[in-house]
What does this fold into?
Amino acid sequence: MGSSDSFVSALAHALLPLLAGPANTTITFPSTTMRRRACDDRAVPESPDLEILADAFHAGLVGRPLASAETPQSLVLRGTPAELDGLRGQVLTRVVRRGKFLAFTFDRDLIIVNAMLTGRLGFARPGAKAWSQTAAVFRFGARLRNLPLDAAPWTAGARWLPADDEPVELRYRDATRMGKIYLMPEGVSRPVPGWDEQGPDAADGALDLEAWRRRIAKHQGELKNLLKNQAFVAGIGNGYSDEILWAAGLAPFRKRSALAPDEVDRLYTATRDVLAWAVSELRERVPPKFEVEVRDYLKVHRKGGSPCPRCGTRLSELSPGGFVTTFCRTCQR
Ligand SMILES: [Zn+2]
It folds into this structure.
């Protein structure tokens, strides 16, 4: 479930699919899902992209036992073959996103995925044509336990949900193999770079305005770097930091120490609004192709030279350190 959804709201909505009947028993996988697709390497997964994946995998896979797993590109795996084998038969109980990570909790063990730049995850029917650059495949059996009660409401009855009585694969592909899949068996301590260093999730309901003001006061640097700093708040990367700063009307290279109190608050509101807006857009645009990043709806990022949607000025674009930054010199101050 989404980290911003309240448990109570999720529980209330969880009954809807049950009342609506077994809407996901007649699902067929659209053939287009299986086709090889060009991967847009510029769209690095950030909080909204991973949020809908967590929701989809939670709704589609929880309650299923892991039947088998293989890693054609073992470079992505952090763990031993014996540990991978030890997951077999364990039922998946939960999928959550934290920052830019996805965590899959099984009966006993845990898997943490960091997709990094080019890692992509999606459902596939067992036996369907292999994806290019497949790095790992997790085969799940038919659902042994009920649909999770805390499934995100938007997934209820979705056509892309794999049928309960059929097996399904969770595939991971990665063109650069920079992403990592960390096996975390019970009793085994394995470092997951970036995991422990994360601040509160940028979309977490517990990150209220007071907490934001307290945290941001400790940082002095440029606003774009601040938003991308996972130790400040987790989940925001190069793309959504541009969208947030545009929404807030704040210039990306401005220093945090130069912000007035009302600008600090504006940045908070813009962060929450943009992330929530992006998630709602992605829910409409991504399924059933979860393995493809969608970014065509963004307002400013990578749209340098186009008119600013707010004031009409041509958007500026710079690439400090190789990371594209797009902004409006007129209405972002
Ligand atoms: Zn403008």
